[in-house]
């Protein structure tokens, strides 16, 4: 996740915008969830409103900053084609034909 500008709750919004810019497709995958005592999120009404406003601010910021060219992706990130798959190390995975 190098090159991200957001490091708060809504960093994933920036990931979605960058993936779209690169022409990558996204897939929604269900995740098993187990609630654990000791959450750091304050669930009081006022606290949730503040978090929601902060996330809205981040969404607007990401959209404006990339649209206006204030934030840019580096050249290496632009070289990913739609048909390319990258491994976790960032190297292109070999297709069956290449293996």
Fold topology:
Blueprint: H1 11-21, H2 45-67, H3 75-78
Tell me the overall shape: globular
The end-to-end distance, rounded to whole angstroms, is 28 Å
Percentage of residues in DSSP E strands: under 5%
Largest sheet composition: none
Strand segment tally: 0
Mean pLDDT: 76
Number of H- or I-type helical stretches: 3
Notes on the structure:
Helix 1 packs parallel to helix 2. The radius of gyration is 17 Å and the shape is globular. The chain has 99 residues and is mainly alpha-helical. The C terminus is likely disordered. The chain has three helices and no strands.
List keywords for this structure.
99 residues, mainly alpha, 38% helix
Task: Give a summary of the structure in a few sentences.
This protein is an all-alpha fold.
């Amino acid at each position: 996740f190098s090159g991200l500008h957001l490091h708060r709750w809504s960093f994933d919004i920036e990931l979605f915008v960058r993936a779209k810019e690169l022409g990558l497709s996204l897939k929604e995958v269900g995740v098993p969830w187990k609630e654990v005592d000791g959450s750091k999120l304050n669930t009081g009404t006022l606290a949730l409103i503040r978090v929601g406003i902060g996330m809205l601010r981040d969404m607007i910021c990401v959209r404006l900053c990339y649209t206006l060219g204030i934030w840019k992706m580096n050249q290496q990130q632009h070289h990913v084609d739609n048909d390319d798959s990258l491994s976790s190390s960032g190297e292109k995975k070999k297709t069956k034909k290449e293996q």
